[in-house]
Specification:
Elements: E1 16-20, H1 25-36, E2 40-45, H2 48-56, E3 62-66, H3 72-81, E4 86-91, H4 109-125, E5 129-136, H5 160-184, E6 190-194, H6 211-223, H7 227-230, H8 232-239, E7 247-250, E8 260-262, H9 272-286
């Protein structure tokens, strides 16, 4: 079988694709490919200036809309103003191993942005999504463990890499529970996930870090694949004929690089009970719930009692 490449992405004419964090890295590449295939692409970004710079390098129908995933009020505003149908939502934005900071709503920055921000955004947009939701996870989910009693590192000593692993494990648990709920209501929308392997993007920045960190990052940069190749698993998860709750990643050594394929995940990432509990906690923290009605349930949305 010929390895998946951008040439396998079908025509997206007539489709609307929203990509978070689309001003740089794999998000920028993903947005560009969809625009090249004829989609109307919305770059959902924190900086209008950076978004417009990225959009200027793309062909076709590309627009920039402001979205700060570290601020629930920004997420609600974005969703409220987005009234048109969305064919594909790419939950791509994220950040890695910053010093301890908190979002506008008091969440640990990585958990709040990488997971809770996309959780709220997806559920608020869900009534308008028609085809697929792709959430970008990471190999780091393998070191992750979701502490439901202290997800925001308020009582534990903060460990940046552990916090990142927690947020990426949360991405996979979110995808699994979202797909379960979509299946319950008989929706044709599917939720998938992807990871870029070891991709050379600016997600991990060296500015303000020590010499040891910068040296380590330089070594990592030597063995990573390009942002163009790193975006392929996302494109595969968004367009290939795969089932819901699929997880795509590079097919090469240790999933670090290579053409995308369906890959495995840890036992923690397959824990259905943990996925449901995380969903319940995420609803409580964000105030956002699954918005679609259950057939035959009098129009009631799925509640936290659906376990």
């Amino acid at each position: 079988m010929t390895p998946f490449s951008t040439s396998n992405v079908p025509s997206m004419a007539g489709c609307t694709v929203v990509v978070t964090g689309a001003n740089s890295g794999i998000g920028r590449v993903t947005a560009r490919v969809f625009a090249d295939r004829g989609a109307r692409v919305v770059l959902a970004v924190r900086s209008r200036e950076k978004g417009q710079t990225a959009a200027a390098e793309m062909t076709g129908r590309v627009e920039v809309r402001l979205l700060d995933l570290a601020d629930l009020s920004s997420i609600r505003s974005f969703a409220r103003e987005f009234t048109e149908p969305i064919d594909v939502l790419i939950n791509n934005a994220g950040l890695t191993v910053p010093p301890l900071h908190r979002t506008a709503d008091g969440f640990e920055l990585q958990f709040g942005t990488n997971h809770l921000g996309h959780f709220a955004l997806t559920n608020l947009l869900l009534p308008r999504i028609r085809e697929r939701i792709v959430t970008v996870a990471s190999l780091a989910h393998r070191i992750g463990s979701v502490d439901l009693a202290d997800p925001n590192w308020e009582r534990r000593p903060y460990r940046a890499m552990r916090a990142y692993g927690q947020s990426k494990l949360a991405n996979l648990l979110f995808t699994a529970e979202l797909q379960r709920r979509l299946g319950i209501i008989g929706s044709t929308v599917i939720a998938t996930a992807a990871h870029p392997g070891m991709s050379a993007t600016n997600l991990v920045r060296s500015e303000g870090r020590g010499a040891g960190f910068r040296i380590g990052k330089a070594v990592i940069d030597l063995v990573t694949q390009s942002a163009e190749d790193g975006a392929l698993p996302t494109l595969y998860a968004a367009t290939a004929e795969i089932p819901g709750n699929s997880y795509a990643g590079p097919g090469g050594l240790l999933e670090s690089r290579g053409a995308p394929k369906l890959v495995g995940r840890t036992a923690k990432a397959r824990d259905a009970v943990a996925a449901r509990r995380l969903w319940e906690l995420s609803e409580e923290l964000t105030g956002v719930a699954f918005p679609l009605p259950i057939p035959g349930a009098g129009g009631a949305a799925i509640s936290r009692s659906t376990t």
